[in-house]
Amino acid sequence: MATKIDNLAKEIMDGLKEYADLATDDVKKAVRKAGNSVRKDISESAPKDTGKYAKSWTVKKTKETSNSLEVTVHSKNRYQLAHLLEHGHAKRGGGRVSARPHIAKAEESAIEVFEKEIDKALGGR
C-alpha cells in the first residue's frame, strides 16, 4: 500500500488508534479475569464455618469508560467479617482470635494473573 507523504501522519495516527483500541479490549479482559481469579481464590481459601462467608464473595464492575475498567471484589453480605478474619481481633472476655489470612494471598495471586494476561495479550503484537 503506497501512501503519499502528505497522508503519512494521518496513516500513523490511524494505526496507533487501532492498536490502542485492541490493547484496551485486551486489558479489560485481563481485569475481568483477575477479578474473577480473586473471587475464586478467596472463596476457596476462606474459613468455612457454615460456608456462607465463602459463598458471599462477588465481583462488581465499579467503573467502565471507553478505555478503562475497574472492578471491585467484595463480600455481599458478610463484609463485616472480612477484616476480622483477615487480621484477627480481640475477644470480648480478653485474649485474641488469631488471624486467618485469605484475602492478601488471593490479591497477590491476581496480580500475577493480571500481569501474565497483559504480557500474553500485548507482548505478541
TrEMBL record:
Highest taxon, organism lineage: Bacteria
InterPro entries recorded: HK97-gp10_tail
One Pfam short name: HK97-gp10_like
Protein known as: HK97 gp10 family phage protein
Native species: Longibaculum muris
